[in-house]
Automatic annotation (TrEMBL), chains A, B:
<protein>
    <submittedName>
        <fullName>CYTH domain-containing protein</fullName>
    </submittedName>
</protein>
<feature type="domain" description="CYTH">
    <location>
        <begin position="2"/>
        <end position="149"/>
    </location>
</feature>
<dbReference type="InterPro" id="IPR023577">
    <property type="entry name" value="CYTH_domain"/>
</dbReference>
<dbReference type="InterPro" id="IPR012042">
    <property type="entry name" value="NeuTTM/CthTTM-like"/>
</dbReference>
<dbReference type="Pfam" id="PF01928">
    <property type="entry name" value="CYTH"/>
</dbReference>
<dbReference type="InterPro" id="IPR033469">
    <property type="entry name" value="CYTH-like_dom_sf"/>
</dbReference>
């Protein structure tokens, strides 16, 4: 079964701002359903659409099934069916051979920066860039589905 | 937006049993989420898997977004995430140039036979085969999502 293993960290804003970065991809994503056992997400990026079913998180792991769908239909699904949603810019950076995804949240979550690294196993070793700070893996308030309900500006 | 327009009828069991029919396709389907505004269904057939998002029914119409997914993953999604499910045999028959889908429900819904015809518009005319009886379009208890919760044997 397709398992996603990822660890999540906060980002130092000052160092991040000084960093030379690639162009971001703009994500709009919404949730058709969330409960403790599963999340059904629709995402629209600059070029594509996706529907993703994720299971509950255990440690740094969760089941994840993702399917690419036409961008226009993903937009319609969000408009018609999303209970909650959020927007963010996503940056992809390579550091010491590993891929980091950094989300710069927008709108109600403006000011929040979160970096994620996807791993092959829970105990995989990796180097952290200097702009990566506190680990927040598994902290529910940082789940995107949660940020769509209780955004950063309300914390 | 992709709209499904279909009318639904009961089937005369005696005439149906005497009918020469093509081979059926076995469907197992479950619901990851249902509410009055939307249904998120995963279906496994003999050969394929599908994830389908349907909107609320208005008259004989509803929004429908369907995506084919690997059969093994559809099976896993059902096993992991379906809140409710059902099984049925589906027969496809052509009558007077139109396609009829006849569902022979199994297990908890054994004994229920329902025929559906998909239309281009709500007022489209069509001929009914003699084995088609009472119309049940829009009757909630015949919704598949509903049959998964309150099966025919409990009626």
């Amino acid at each position: 079964m397709p398992v996603e293993i990822e660890r999540k960290f906060l980002v130092d804003k000052t160092l991040w701002q000084k960093l030379e970065k690639p162009e971001a991809n703009f994500f709009r994503q919404g949730y058709l359903h969330t409960d403790p056992e599963k999340t059904i997400r629709v995402r629209v990026t600059n070029t594509s659409g996706y529907i993703t079913i994720k299971g509950a998180t255990t440690g740094a792991s969760r089941l994840e099934y993702e399917y690419e769908i036409p961008k226009t239909e993903a937009t319609e699904l969000l408009d018609q069916f999303a209970e909650t949603s959020l927007i963010k810019n996503r940056y992809i950076l390579i550091f010491e051979g590993k891929t980091w995804e950094v989300d710069e949240f927008l709108a109600e979550n403006e000011g929040l920066l979160v970096a994620e690294i996807e791993l092959e196993s829970e105990d995989e070793k990796f180097e952290k860039p200097d702009w990566v700070t506190e680990e927040v893996t598994g902290q529910k308030k940082y789940y995107n589905a949660q940020l769509a309900v209780n955004p950063y500006k309300n914390w």
